[in-house]
Amino acid sequence: MSDSPALTEVESYGVERIPDADRSATPFDLFRVAFGGANTFATCVLGAFPILFGLSFWQGLAATVLGVVGGSLILAPLAVFGPRNGTNNAVSSSAHLGVHGRIVGSFLSLLTAIAFFSISVWSSGDALVGGAHRLMGVEQNDGVFALAYGIFGLLVLTVCVYGFRFMLFVNKIAVVAASTLFVLGFFAFVGDFDPGYQGSFASVSTAGFWPAFIGSALIVLSNPVSFGAFLGDWARYIPADTPRRKVVTAAFASQIATILPFFFGLATASIIAKKAAPYMDADAPNYVGGLLAISPGWYFLPVCLLALIGGLSTGTTSLYGTGLDFSSVFTRFSRVQATLFVGVLSIGFIFLGRFAANLSQSISTFATLIITCTAPWMIIMVLGYVTRRGWYDPDSLQVFNRRQRGGRYWFHHGWNWRGMGAWLTAAVLALMFVNVPGQYVGPLGDLADGADISLPVGLATAALLYLTLLWIFPEPREVYGPEGPRLVRASDAPVPPITTETGAPVTAVTEGA
Questions:
Q1: Per the domain annotation, does 294 fall within a domain?
Q2: Domain containing 160 — which CATH number?
Q3: In the chain, how many domains are there?
Q4: pLDDT 10s digits, 294-338
Q5: Residue 290 lies in a domain
Q6: Domain for residue 183, yes or no?
Q7: CA triplet 405, 406, 412: central angle to 5 degrees?
Q8: Residue 441 phi/psi, 5° resolution?
Q9: Contact (CB, 8 A) for 18 and 240
Q10: For an engineered disulfide with 288, which of 126, 161, 167, 354 has Cβ 3.0 to 4.6 Å away?
Q11: pLDDT digits (tens, 9 = 90+) for 216-260
């Protein structure tokens, strides 16, 4: 295995298969990147929603644990694609959605990255400015906030341009530093914390409890699920022969560990609701402002450090993969050029959303809607992996990126209508059942007495419809590799050879991984 590149060496790989000799990452590295990206203020903001929705502390903790565990279980299997195929998950989805259908994963990852990058920069920027105001009397005006957002955006963009190694270095520091600062917060707030905080619901039978409980759990769940499109970006540097259970366990553990920032957000939100209630007004919540209002003076500096570390960590994990994938959709861009383009676009959205359109309070709802569409895509990927017995043709996966045609995953003009049909149907149906209290209610959102059942509807629909379509309309036998399909049937339909866009044959060695 070759020596690892220098920390400050700009990463040269795009979404092409990473050679085995250059894969030096470990499952623990995957843990650090995934956990580091979620161990931030942005996660604390999501953790405050159970209190914002009126739950008691213990009800909120139950919803948080349910969301974290459920999201981790959905996410963890997505970690296997990176080591297996040496590329990101959007490219791997070509095997199940088709050569052109893989753009679904690219589109979902772009929206997810912008949403969570925005949450990260807004929350961290607000905390940094607020802490600086309390520590040094810095003015709190639009110019200062814009400067903080700009600094965060440029720092994140710089890390992403350098690439995976630099991002891994940042997260190595972030995991330890942010965790220490959160634990330090225990001493800052333990005197004010009351686990008996009652909220608005006396019991689970109180009208409105279940919509608030399920809505809270889904917002928490959106955090681990948001990593689904990105896991392959980091896991592709893990050697292909690494045991799958180690990779899956690392991904699962990275999200279970986020109970730390979620608990911090939940506990401090309950304190804010009692001591500084206006900051938890459902019509105009301001968790960061409330946190600063209840913090002792000595904790202002740790708050500023948390803001800086968290903004970098979450921002890089969100933005890196999207720039990487964008370079494969628009091949005129290198990875660095695509990262710069997406980064500038995201930073522009942050400024527009904060100062012109006032979107900062509704971005969590936007993120929830994106995750509602992403979860069915994830279940199709996992079931596809199971039916293929984990066998993929790396050469055919790269057809789109090379602007070629044909191959095992060409299906119908580059689209696999089985996977596409199952995903689109499940996503649309799930969106109709969304019910986020006080924010967004779909046309069928009140069908279950106001409870949000969008996620189970989306997952169940995607799973049943996809397997049904694979059974009734079997895919070509060649997509399954030497051992054949599992659970479904195969057809003897021919697979077109890989050619250039002009129809000229391509000489390539096709191998299974």
A1: yes
A2: 1.10.4160.10
A3: 1
A4: 999 899 888 888 878 877 777 777 777 677 677 667 767 777 777
A5: yes
A6: yes
A7: 105
A8: -130, 120
A9: no
A10: 126
A11: 898 899 889 888 888 888 899 899 999 999 999 999 999 999 999
